[in-house]
Amino acid sequence: MNSKNNSREKILNTATKLFQINGFNATGLNEILKESKSPKGSLYYYFPDGKDQLALEAIQLASKSIIERVKTTLNKYSDPIEAIKYLIGNIINDLEEENKLQDISISLIALETYSSNENLRKACKGAFTSLSYVYAGKLVQNGFSKQKADELGMTIEIMIEGAITLSVTRKDTVPLLTISNIIDILLSQD
C-alpha cells in the first residue's frame, strides 16, 4: 500500500471509529487528525468536502464492516435462531468485555444526523436496510417466504438496534439478553 492510500485510510478509519463511539457532532476534525497522526492538509486533500464527506465515507465503511460481521456470524449456524442468538451473544460480549461500540451499530450517527443532513440520513437508512436484507436472506434459506422473511428481517434489525441503544444507555446488556431469549418465539413457524 502506498503512503497516499495509507494516509487516507488512517484518516477514514479513525473517523469511522470516532463517529461510531462519540457521534458526529462530538467528533471534531482536529480530534480525527490528532488520533490518526495526519496533517490537516491531508484531510482536505482526500476529503475536499470536509467533515460531511468524511462522515459519509465513514458510514459506508462502518456499514460494510458491520454487514460483513453479521453475515459471517450468521453463516456459522444453519439454524437462524441459533445464528441470531450467537450474533447477539457476540454483541453482548463486545459491550461487556471490551466496552466496544465500533463495528456494532451506526445508530448514534443516524440519530444525530437524521434531521440535519440528508446525505448522511440516506447512508444510514441504506445500512439499516441492508442489514434487514441479511437477516431476511438467512430466513429465506431456512424456508420462510420472501414476504415473511422481509418482515421478520426488519423486525430483527429493529430489535437488535433498539437493544443496542438501550444497553448502551442503561450500561447493561439486559435488553440484548431479552431479545436473545425471545428470538425463538419470533421465528417459530407455527
UniProtKB/TrEMBL annotation:
| Superkingdom classification of source | Bacteria
An example of a GO molecular function for this protein is: DNA binding
Q: Which residues bind DNA?
A: 28-47
Q: Where is the HTH tetR-type domain?
A: 5-65
The stretch of residues making up the signal peptide is none
**Which Pfam family, just one, is annotated for this protein?**
TetR_N
Keywords assigned by UniProt, alphabetized:
DNA-binding, Transcription, Transcription regulation
PANTHER family on file? HTH-TYPE TRANSCRIPTIONAL REGULATOR LMRA (PTHR47506:SF3), TRANSCRIPTIONAL REGULATORY PROTEIN (PTHR47506)
Q: What is this protein called?
A: Putative HTH-type transcriptional regulator YxaF
Name its species: Clostridium luticellarii
